[in-house]
Design brief:
3 helices, alpha+beta, Phosphorylase Kinase, domain 1, single chain
């Protein structure tokens, strides 16, 4: 099994494409985030997107950008192993009502991290099929 070395925990996000969960690595107890394809048999394109995300994150080491620690592969499946910095979903913060003094530093950090990631070679490539 792809993630047999991890104890999966709280589901942080799920879409048609990906599932993101907190996890604990069994060998050392490290707290991590695991991002996998939601589908049991992902398409080649879905696998490539996760691999691409891993490569970009490995090149961007900056506050506001989550660190990619490893990539697990088995059969046709891929799992990104990411650092868990203990954050919470932005939607959870918004629903609680975030004060301006807490919102702007976080928003600035997120925007700065997105800016750094987007400047990496290949980060702006177009994954969509082009119509002719």
């Amino acid at each position: 099994m792809l993630l047999d070395r991890y104890e999966l925990g709280e589901r942080l996000a799920e879409s048609d494409r990906n599932t993101v969960r907190r996890a604990r690595r069994l060998r050392d107890g490290a707290r991590l985030i695991v991002k996998t394809s939601t589908r049991e048999y992902p398409s080649v394109r879905e696998v490539r997107r996760l691999e691409f995300e891993y490569r970009i994150l490995r090149h961007v080491e900056s506050p506001g950008v989550i660190g990619a620690l490893d990539i697990e592969r088995q059969g046709g499946r891929v799992a990104l192993i990411l650092e868990d910095f203990g954050g919470e979903r932005l939607s959870a913060l918004v629903s609680k009502g975030v004060s301006f003094e807490h919102f702007f530093p976080r928003a600035t950090l997120i925007a700065s991290g997105c800016g750094r990631a987007s400047t990496q070679p290949g980060a702006n490539r177009d994954d969509k099929p082009r119509s002719r």
